[in-house]
Design a protein that fits this description.
393 residues, Rossmann fold, Rna Polymerase Sigma Factor, Chain: A, 3 domains, 16 helices, 45% helix, globular
Length: 393
């Protein structure tokens, strides 16, 4: 029996990294329940364990083929199909939707949740970057709200709560530097995707961990921050902070800098996003600054991390360019994992795709236009991959 006062949470992408950590947060909380789960179907065993443990009222699965392998309680309602996540996001009984879907696929469910006037705890930066024009219209129309769950955006969100927008001079995003922070450009020539997964401070999914190593994650966050907080790219900086304790900062007009500090644990931002505006009892370890000793900051090496300048370029150009940036990176990372391209060629593919995408004539103020731009950019990125592979022969 669900308590009437408990927040009813729908977890999209429940078997992914964000989804698993979200359910861990819910397990520790008395005033939140997992009302609905949705997953693609690639990890049925885990999804069945989640269903058995949390006993959701609704379960969504994208794969009709895998749906028959689910073990459901008698009173559980199953939703099957490619639009399962969007249907779960629109459920009238749901209070908060956690968007833990990876990549561009999270866009339509995000829009569905906002249009249904839901609070969205969003860990999917790609959907905000690619769909910002539509998302912004929905939010300005008074439908739904977004509470960012990325640690960096959550930090900025919290820092801005006590300030007027006109008082903000600069947003400062921090970056760990990823697995290759100490590598030289030459050493990056032959690294593998398994090398990229050795993140020194964060436990995340495969795609985002590789993006952290290449800084494309930070590039997406630059654009996401600009759209979420209505700040020009000229007023967004990045600092490499290997300890991952300062999650981001806001500089104000008077010279004051406000920062949010915490241990590097995604569950803190997730918990805050789920239960906003309330703060819950701690479920992560205590931050002990005396044991850490020193916090260091440095400017990123733009030669090694080309993703950052490419992000500023895409942000300034707007239109199809942020969509192309994300699409090309998704294509390139997939090819890097398969071993078809080298790590440094990810940036080559994104840069070439941006150059070609500048010629596209696609309106991006509708979902159809955004999907069209995404498909075209993926085609251009695939062509770039083919050229790189052909030149290597």
């Amino acid at each position: 029996m669900i308590e009437k006062t408990a927040k009813r949470i729908a977890v999209l992408g429940s078997t992914g990294s964000i989804g698993r950590q979200t359910l861990d947060c819910i397990w520790h909380m008395d005033d939140a329940v997992c009302f609905a789960l949705c997953a693609g179907g690639s990890n049925i065993d885990l999804l069945n364990r989640q269903i058995a443990e949390f006993k959701p009222r609704y379960v969504g699965i994208c794969s009709a083929e895998k749906a028959g392998e689910l073990i459901l309680p008698e009173d559980c309602i199953l939703i099957v199909g490619t639009d399962a996540a969007s249907m779960i996001a629109r459920l009238p009984e749901v209070d908060t939707v956690v968007n833990g879907i990876s990549g561009f696929d999270g866009l339509v469910p995000l829009l569905s949740a906002i249009e249904a006037d839901k609070t969205v705890a969003s860990a999917n930066k790609e959907s905000i970057v690619c769909g910002h024009s539509i998302v912004d219209k929905c939010l300005k129309a008074g439908r739904g709200c977004i509470i960012p769950v990325d640690s960096e955006q959550s930090a900025i969100f919290q820092c801005l709560m006590c300030a007027d927008h006109a008082e903000v001079k600069k947003l400062i995003l921090t970056a760990s530097g990823g697995a290759f922070k100490e590598y030289t450009y030459e050493q990056l020539q032959n690294v593998t995707y398994k090398d990229a997964l050795k993140h020194p401070t964060w436990s995340m999914g495969t795609k985002i961990t590789i993006d952290s190593a290449s800084m494309f994650n930070k590039g997406l966050e630059i654009m996401e921050a600009a759209y979420l907080f209505d700040v020009s790219g000229d007023n967004i900086d990045v600092l490499v902070h290997p300890q991952s304790i300062v999650h981001s900062m806001v500089e104000f007009n008077d010279g004051c800098v406000m920062a949010q500090l915490a241990v590097p644990d995604m569950r803190l931002a997730i918990q805050y996003g789920i239960m906003y505006p309330k703060r819950q009892q701690r479920i992560v370890s205590t931050l002990e600054l005396a044991k850490i000793g020193a916090l260091t900051f440095e400017k990123p090496d733009k030669n090694k991390y080309r993703a950052i300048d490419l992000a500023y370029l895409a942000l300034k150009a707007d239109g199809v360019m942020p969509i192309a940036y994300n699409a090309a990176n998704e294509v390139a990372v997939d090819e890097f994992i398969k071993g078809r391209i080298k790590f440094l060629e990810i940036a080559d593919i994104v840069e070439e795709t941006l150059e070609e995408s500048a010629r596209l004539s696609v309106e991006t103020d509708t979902i159809e236009g955004i999907i069209c731009a995404d498909m075209e950019a993926r085609r251009l990125a695939a062509d770039s991959v083919s050229r790189i592979c052909a030149n290597r022969r």
